[in-house]
User: Fold these one by one.
Assistant:
Number 1:
Amino acid sequence: MSNDQYTFANPAEQYQMRQPEEQYQEGPGLDQKLSPKADHGEQSYRGTGRLSGRKALITGADSGIGRAVAIAYAREGADVVLSYLPDEQPDADEVAELVRAAGRKAVLAPGDIADEKYARALVHTAAKELGGLDLVVNVAGRQQTAERLEDITSESFDQTMRTNIHAMFWVIQEALPHLPAGSSIINTSSVQAYSPSPTLVDYATTKAAINTFSKALAQQLAPRGIRVNVVAPGPIWTPLQAAGGQPPEALPEFGQQTPLGRPGQPAELAPP
Ligand code: NAD
Ligand code: MG
């Protein structure tokens, strides 16, 4: 492969994506409907065996950041269980195909992670299907923009908390008995934890909670040989943003205010 993630390049000049049009998708949003397309490393990610034989559970693995993680992990040699919402099956099927093309096992495990029963059962499915578990990557998240606090319904607030915070707790708690020393847990925060937008009050709050949860847990689990990390991305071009994460009219300018002058691509976050 001539161009991969190790190719020396100027990040300010990479990914000259055409300006996105205004767009809106119901529900979790599909990568298949995202325009322009995002890059998850499909053509570029080159593995070097860094996760040989590892067993990974990845939530939100059908699209965006989670898809890029699944592709990278598989090409590094890990078998993966992919969690996503049933509505996202078309995206998840594509990811499973990419994982299998890398010669690794892909287990499809659709369900609503805001449902405690599914979240806990997911871990058991993963451990059973993979013959153990040593990587837990919590990527699933919900972000719905709201101009005014009065616009956030109790149901929506609750769903955001359950998806972003409770699910992480359920998955990790259920995973711990399976995780040998040397395992890693990776949670997904956001720039919103540090610089919250006025229109993302509930979402930003969950990301600050994820940071604090992870910092405390990292200290608790270090003596057991389990590493806990958080990744806090800035604006990344994914279906989350086109499915209510931003007002549609903000999408053409999405990510332009960053120091690189462009949104990030999922592929830029995936390398393990
Ligand atoms: P995405 O829409 O591609 O991924 C989010 C995934 O969460 C969905 O694919 C879906 O499978 C999953 N999900 C949502 N609700 C769920 C539920 N109830 N049950 C099961 N799965 C559910 O978008 P993304 O941007 O790749 O988001 C991944 C993570 O990155 C999220 O935690 C998000 O908060 C975080 N993040 C994104 C950005 C960004 O700009 N895109 C920035 C910072 C952090
Ligand atoms: Mg998705």
Number 2:
Amino acid sequence: MAPPSGVGKRVKGCQIYRPFVYGTTSRPFDDKKNPKPPGVPDDHTHSWKVFVKGVDDTDITYWLRRVQFKLHESIPNPVRMIDGEPGKPFVVEETGWGEFEITLKLYYISESGEKPQTLYHHLRLHPYGRNDEEREAMRETGQVPAWTYEEQLFNEPYEAFYEILTSGAIALPKGVAGSGATGSPAAGGASSSSAANAALAPIGKRSEGGVLARSAMVPLTSRQKSPFSRETEQLEIQKLKNAQNSVRGMTEKLLAELRVKEEQLAALRKEATEAMAGG
Ligand code: SLL
């Protein structure tokens, strides 16, 4: 693809990851915990939201510009365009009765030169297929979470975009992050997919460790669909060290063999010279 104007060249050999979370959180209507607002049709059994957001509500709008959420056709205006607001999740809130697949189209900032990318997510209203512990957590929170952790890879980003991605974390005012789609931490712990279970718990610690909104840090551990991390980096380094050691070993062996051959050659030359002198 020809580079868009003003974004510079691509930064060769550079890969930048930005973690994010997308999914749905739904709640059954309940007279006490989640009363049905006036005007909601009788057959609607749940309120729910679908979102794309940063891990621990870190800002992602500096690389993600807008998200198009395509809902079921039975819902009025099923195609929703949501533009990013700094520090806020991209979110659509709805009510309904049935589960369906939501199509999410991610639009990156223009400096990225990236084409939009499509993700799919199944809206979960019911706690099917969860284990007892998860069901218990859902009973406590009244929520059915279905979240997926994802890492957005920018492969050889354009220079201008690289600058934006790496130009230092911006601190968000307290209270900006955390609004909206996330629900309580308990809801996160009760998340359905194993990817979410594996990813959500450690992220809190990890982001404290410095995966800030804007920094070119490599993720700390390997994750699904993410071949690059500090872990794999260490493995690569170890592999390179091993390779270096074996090359060094081979070189030493060859040098030793060479030395023996040179000695043999010198001896043969001496013999030949002596033979000629003597004969
Ligand atoms: C099903 N295949 O039959 C699915 C379709 C559609 C859900 C589910 C409508 C909400 C509204 C709604 O919940 N549709 O009328 O705004 O289960």
